Amino acid sequence: YLFTEAYGYAHRKVPAHMPHMINKRIMEDLQSKYPNEWDATSSHQLRQSDDMQYAFSYFYYLINQEPVLPDKKLFELSDIDEDGVLDTNELRTVVIRAFGNPLKHDKYEEVMAIHEHFGDLQFEVFCIHEELLTKLREYY
Fold first, then answer.
1. How far apart are CA 32 and CA 26, in angstroms?
2. 123: nearest Cα among 71, 70, 87
3. What is the pLDDT of residues 123-135, one digit of tens each?
4. For residue 119, what pLDDT band results from cuts at 50, 70 and 90?
5. Cα maximum dimension of the chain
6. Which residue, 13, 41, 49, 57, is the most exposed by fewest CB within 10 angstroms?
7. Rg of the chain over CA atoms, in angstroms?
8. What is the pTM of this model?
9. pLDDT value, residue 14
10. Nearest alpha-carbon partner for 67 in 34, 25, 99, 97
């Protein structure tokens, strides 16, 4: 019922009994989304009817959950010349991707103010502007 609530109704089947490769980060995300259910499952010595089934939960989470691009990947996608620094042209493109075209001058000035305050817009400085990162994730 958890996946129906979160992602809508779908006919779901249990994956075959076989070895499964599990990405730890994705499994941590899944377990953080349903902490009470995973804690309850872990507290049982024997299986219960309402336990989280490991492979089932993992695979349907993978199928249904929208991926979230990490900050580092957003920076790499924005750093066109791959020099580790966003120049003014790359910044302009980032602002257009994040806030739409035509260029929003107030948002561009906001990003440029951060750039001017910290100097080179390297990865660490890029991560300061949360709204920009959120909007870029929506773009990609």
1. 10
2. 71
3. 888 888 889 899 9
4. confident
5. 61
6. 49
7. 21
8. 0.56
9. 81
10. 25
Q: Which amino acid is at 62?
A: L
Q: Please write down the HEC assignment for all residues of 27-58.
A: HHHHHHHCHHHHHHHHHCCCCCCCCCCHHHHH
Place of tokens 């001017």: 116
Length of the chain: 140
CA-nearest of 123, 102, 125 to 113 is: 125
Q: Nearest to residue 6, comparing CAs of 59, 61, 67, 51?
A: 61
Q: Which two tokens stand for residue 20?
A: 């499964």
Instruction: Please give the structure tokens belonging to residue 66.
Output: 């929208």
Instruction: With a cut of 90, say whether residue 11 has pLDDT above it.
Output: no
Distances (CA, A) of 25 to 30, 93, 96, 99: 9, 30, 31, 29
